[in-house]
User: Fold this.
Amino acid sequence: MTSHCFWSATSPLPSSPLSNTHTKVEEKWRGYFPLKRKPLHLRLSNAGRARAALNADSKAIEIPRRWYNLIADLPVKPPPPLHPKTFEPIKPEDLSPLFPDELIKQEASSERFIDIPDEVIDVYKLWRPTPLIRAKRLEKLLDTPARIYYKYEGVSPAGSHKPNTAVPQVWYNAKEGVKNVVTETGAGQWGCALAFACSLFDLGCEVWQVRASFDQKPYRRLMMQTWGAKVHPSPSTVTGAGRDILQMDPSSPGSLGIAISEAVEVAAMNLDTKYCLGSVLNHVLLHQTVIGEECIKQMEAFGETPDLIIGCTGGGSNFAGLSFPFIREKLHGRINPVIRAVEPAACPSLTKGMYAYDYGDTAGLTPLMKMHTLGHDFIPDPIHAGGLRYHGMAPLISHVYEQGFMEAIAIPQIECFQGAIKFARSEGLIPAPEPTHAIAATIREALKCRETGEAKVILTALCGHGHFDLPAYEKYLQGNMVDLSFSEEKIQGSLANIPQVAA
Ligand SMILES: Cc1ncc(COP(=O)(O)O)c(C=O)c1O
Assistant:
């Protein structure tokens, strides 16, 4: 399915100045005087190095002033989104019922960098820069020579990476005079982020929360309500899309695709209301690159270069946020990490989906996007990582995957929670169910390093805390968690409903 083009994600670039191989001598000396591998920009002065040593483990770096747009550096540009009726490439005006002009511009932009407005930076300062932490205690627990780093986004007010895009999305809407925004939410993390941002800029906020999470996670609903948002379980009786689903299945657990249909329907019907999306779209991935831009500087401060970058993928925004700036460095031949997405075995869009034009929502209201999809009417089983229950993958990530610049694996939820428990009992932080996928993959790799003796540098995204996901932990701790695995039949059924678009 995935065609790897002129160079594979796992083989070293001939031009890369940073080799991943260490001699035995290097390994021996590392124990005494950590041998600095060349930093990413390769231009650190002695004073810079001294400062780097001081800064390691701290938040002393600056918040980036620009978001990074990977499209500018891609040798092959991604295919355009299509109008759902005409199948022609969509025009900016097609999107204006849903989004403010500035976000539409960003969606289609091929500029390499986009300035972050001062007002947004001002809000980012509440929690950014976020810490990059070496997981020394986890390394010790696993008895691995690997060096594991995690970039922790759980320090934001909403507890995840989602406010990195919620704040600019709401700010651009407010600047263009929009009064209300509507959205979907899976785990409730995105809904919380949007409700928080709306409370700062005084916008109305209405959220459709996937039924399975609405029931499992009452505290996120209460957080959204505390920030002033109105929250509906999805499918709801408020919209035509919701009523249709309920008619077919009154006990539907919902899905992100259904919740998106409901929010888009409301935005399309109300002039003073726009729609915000928490993942998938180019402008969302763009805003999340503050994570990777900060992380590049922080890895430099540690004197480290990642050999492997791991992130979980639902719609792909935290993964893109961390990895895209590193992919830029990789494309320029400065580093050569393996970039690995981790998805749930119950909703494996990248590893088992079809690369095809499909709708972003269940009812077929959104533009058609070329992406890895399980079919827009695929309803994943109600795994605890509600934020990963999306039938598709960000078109930009799908494209990068097709081009061979990254790889993907799928992991079932019990292994993820086993990893999360190890992480919590060594590093202290309790991860949200979504990044437990990245942690499980990190542990797999660290254990491989124990076997091979390789001292790989593994960088992973801990994109949110799990303080409001404790019922999932309770299930695991009581031995009641089950692996809801993926059904070939179910996917064949939903793939049959993908619209037929000429290649
Ligand atoms: C903590 C957390 N991580 C990851 C995700 C998945 O989204 P994305 O792939 O866009 O990062 C979500 C989505 O709700 C989330 O809440």
